[in-house]
Each structure stands twice: as C-alpha cells, then as structure tokens.
Here is the input.
Amino acid sequence: MGMGALALSVVPMNALAAALKGFDARRTLAFYNTHTDESLQVCYFEQGAYREDGLVEIARILRDHRTDTVKPIDTALLDLLFAVKCRIRPRGPFHVISGYRSQSTNEMLRRNTSGVAKKSYHTKGQAVDIRLPGYNTSGLRNLCVKMNAGGVGYYSRSDFVHLDIGPIRTW
Here is the structure.
C-alpha cells in the first residue's frame, strides 16, 4: 500500500515535468500581490537551473504580508504556475491573494474563517491562492483540475483558486 501511495504521489510531478518539456531555457512569472500592491515580473529558471535571485524575489512578493515573514517557495509550485501560464497565456500577472503563511497567521485565519487547513500547504511555501483578471475563475479552476498536478480549491464567492503541490484532490 505504501508503494502505491508513493507511486501516486509521483504521478503529478511526472505530468508536470512532461508539461514543462521544451521550457528548459527560460521560465518567467509575473505576480501582483493584492494585499501589498507590489508587482513583480521575474525569470526564475534559465539555462537548465533555478535562479537564486529570481527565487528570492518571488519569496518576497509571496511573503506573509501580516507578519512580513519570508519563506522560500517550492520550485515545483512555481513550475505548476508556469505550466498554467503557458496554457492560458494571460495578458497580466497572477493576482496573489495568499502565498506563504506563517503558522501564527494560519492559526489566526483558522480561528476567524472557515476552510483553513490546520496543516496548510501555505505554511510550507507549497500553495498559492490566485486569480487572473480577465480570465474566468471557474475556467481557471477547470484547467488546473485537468492538469492533474496537485490540490485545487475553488472559492467562487471570493473569486480565487487555490493551487498546491500536495496530493491530487479538489474542493
């Protein structure tokens, strides 16, 4: 059973790797943080390697804006966002509602709102809540589900999609 779980956990990343085939030269992402009003367009991968300067900039814009805590963002999440970008070809940046969350922020959100996981992937730098203005959020959700590469949550009333690199699941 353990080997089966291991095999299933590898499938999403293999699917993601296949989606990224041919994008080994340069990968860029653009973000707009809806809480801090900051924008960033950055190359995070070039010539077969992740760029430390790009990763640092991404960690900064996706920081916990409540505590100003910065944590590295998992490169698999960035690659997932890049694969989404390649499929959609958005005109603008990903609007970020939530990136990294400190444990204290996550606990505060759990106390005050519903639907916040105790062991959230946000606290590991492995999840992001996004929207793309001009792109239907339910369509974004459907695309992400079809990619079969992690967790996808759809929050229609708040108009955002949650993406993480955990097991494949939807809500």
Summary: The chain has one domain: 2-170. The two ends are 25 Å apart (CA to CA).
